[in-house]
Design brief:
Blueprint: H1 3-9, H2 15-27, E1 33-34, E2 37-38, E3 83-89, E4 101-102, E5 114-115, E6 120-123, E7 126-134, E8 140-143, E9 145-147, E10 157-165, E11 171-179, E12 187-192, E13 200-206, E14 213-218, E15 225-232, E16 235-240, E17 243-249, E18 258-266, E19 285-297
Parallel strand pairs: 5-8
Antiparallel strand pairs: 1-2, 3-19, 4-9, 6-7, 7-8, 7-19, 9-18, 10-15, 10-19, 11-12, 11-18, 12-13, 13-14, 15-16, 16-17
Length: 298
């Protein structure tokens, strides 16, 4: 795919973002603005009436059993060689911990999508970010996203994310690192796709200067996998189920503080790379996260 896809997708923030930024400056509140939408603190009550009856397989059919570890693999605990564990969340409660916040608003450059905290839930031993149509949003697929910026916002580290994604044309996922000061670029996409066949995962670096550096790996990402990144000075190592699958090295690798975000997104029709929902897209399309672990270099 060409670079135009990326710059179109990651252009300037919509007017809603600018308006919120003005409010932020007036009130003195730190409200992050993420690439795919405007980040706000999760409201006390979700908007809408909740998802319609779920279409497709139940959440634990993709390789897990029970609710403690839906993916069949427990969250890692403790340090690893060369890495000191600083964060782990296996979503065993019924709500997001205070380490996270959900954001909302129209994704940057995408009139076919919307983020709503009411599409983010915790239960059954996992985080679920659900996409379904909302009549109040012109019947588009509304999705959600979360960030851990409040608790882990640093340069360099290791991230492992146990995830799966329902099939659903036009609903994409992105597991990414975003600058702590909300200034894009850079951006590191640990794992994402374009809402097509769920048969390929992309890792992409958007450097401060130069073209995006993209890698991809095949697989069935409707099943549970662990996407990972090992970020050290001058190098990114992308991993899948614990094994390196791509490396990016050089002075384009960021050296600034960044924070993890997890999200799904519906795209408008006519985009050059992302698919858009069609008549075959299920009523509900879920991104599911069993656990997330973060590490600092030891």
């Amino acid at each position: 795919m060409n670079a135009g896809r990326w710059w179109h997708r990651r252009g300037t923030v919509f007017a809603v973002g600018a308006a919120l930024a003005a409010v932020v400056l007036t009130l003195g509140i730190a409200v992050p603005l993420l690439r795919h939408g405007t980040a706000t603190v999760q409201p006390t009550a979700p908007a809408g009436n909740g998802p319609p009856p779920r279409a497709g397989p139940p959440p634990t059919t993709a390789g897990g059993s029970g609710t403690a570890h839906p993916s069949g693999i427990a969250a890692p605990r403790g340090d690893l060689p060369g890495w000191r564990q600083i964060f782990v969340d296996d979503f065993t409660g019924v709500e997001l911990s205070e380490d996270w916040f959900a954001y909302s608003g129209q994704p940057d450059g995408d009139p076919g999508g919307w983020f709503d905290p009411g599409h983010v839930s915790v239960g059954g031993g996992m985080l679920t970010i659900g996409g379904w149509r909302e009549a109040a949003r012109d019947n588009i697929y509304v999705t959600g996203g979360v960030s851990i910026r409040r608790s882990v916002n640093r340069a360099y580290g290791r991230y492992d994310i146990r995830f799966r994604m329902d099939r659903g044309t036009g609903i994409a996922y992105a597991l990414l690192l975003w600058p702590g000061d909300d200034t894009y670029p850079p951006e590191i996409d640990i794992a994402e796709d374009n809402g097509k066949g769920r048969d390929r995962m992309y890792g992409v670096l958007h450097p401060v200067t130069g073209e995006p550096i993209e890698r991809s790996v095949p697989g069935d990402f409707t099943r549970w996998h662990t996407a990972g990144l090992q970020w050290t000075p001058g190098e990114l190592v992308y991993t899948l189920d614990g094994e390196p699958w791509a490396t990016v090295s050089g002075d384009q690798v960021p050296d600034e503080a960044m924070a993890l975000a997890l999200q799904s997104q519906a795209w408008y029709c006519g985009h050059t790379w992302e698919a858009c929902p069609d008549q075959h897209t299920p009523d509900v399309v879920n991104l599911q996260i069993d656990w997330v672990a973060g590490y600092a270099p030891s």
